[in-house]
Amino acid sequence: MAAGSMTDAGAGMRTAEWRWILAVAIAAVLAIAGAVSPDLRWVHYACKPLATLLIAAMVLVSSGGSVRYRRTVLAGLLLSALGDIFLMLVPGPQRPDWFVFGLASFLLAHVAYLLAFCSRAKLLARRWPFAVYALVAIVVSAVLRPHLPEALRWPVYAYVVVLSVMAAQAAAVWAASPDRSTASAALGGAFFVASDATLALDRFVAPFPMAVVIVLATYWAAQMLIGLSATRMPRN
Fold first, then answer.
1. pLDDT score, position 236
2. What sign does the CA torsion over 193, 199, 204, 209 have?
3. Which residues does 27 contact at the CB level (< 8 Å), separation at least 6?
4. SS3 labels along 12-55
């Protein structure tokens, strides 16, 4: 009976997980459709923060793993939702550009994720991920440098460093202790780097069609995977 109960509980957790994934996927698809179609802009405004907040809700109601880990991941998701809102605010003649505020919100979100990952393994637990992401950061920064406004240059560099360290630490935790939870975090970090690199190239270097689709799809893949790293974490 005990084995059967554990099997039923595991199946129930997987079903709940897929329901959250489906709900987030629907909100994300609607947000992307609204970003692509001017007639559906209001859908984008409603569903972009909603998708991130649904991931936060998934983590909030989860009972698995470390409370400290869940709370820091939840803080990162809420800061990301705030960043989502800032980045949706379109600048105009009488309206400021909120990009820097969005950048700051996401930088703090990555700090929260980094703290979460450091609670599972010490910083630099494995060094090769830091070497890989350092190379990525150098290449991206070199490409961006001639195109960045002077006022944004150092804020963007700081963001690139924090993002890269977060993703590297996620990969280092996975390398030190591979399981479903750490694999989710490592993939989430990689998707975040891909999303933000695409966003930066499109915004500052060479805008290209459908960039928003790539940016948002990889962004929510990253957030969902990081959220799942908390719900999939073995209980203490």
1. 59
2. positive
3. 47, 50, 51, 54
4. HHHHHHHHHHHHHHHHHHHHHHHHHCHHHHHHHHHHHHHHHHHH
Output DSSP code: residue 147.
G
Instruction: Return the residue matching tokens 């719900």.
Output: 231
CA 214 to chain centre: 14
Distance of CA 17 to the CA centre of its chain: 18
The whole-model pTM stands at 0.91
Give the whole-angstrom CA distance, residue 119 versus residue 214: 31
Residue 197 structure tokens: 């690199």
Cβ contact 166:195 at 8 Å: no
Q: What are phi and psi of 125, to 5 degrees?
A: -60, -35
How far apart CA 80 and CA 111 sit, in angstroms, is: 11
Alpha helix stretches (DSSP H) within the chain: 2-36, 41-61, 67-88, 99-118, 128-144, 150-176, 180-200, 211-231
Q: Does residue 1 register a pLDDT over 50?
A: no
Burial class (CB in 10 A: 0-12, 13-18, 19+), 88: middle
Please report how many Cα atoms fall inside a 13 Å half-sphere around the Cα of residue 132, on the Cβ side: 16
Residues 121-143 have a mean pLDDT of 96
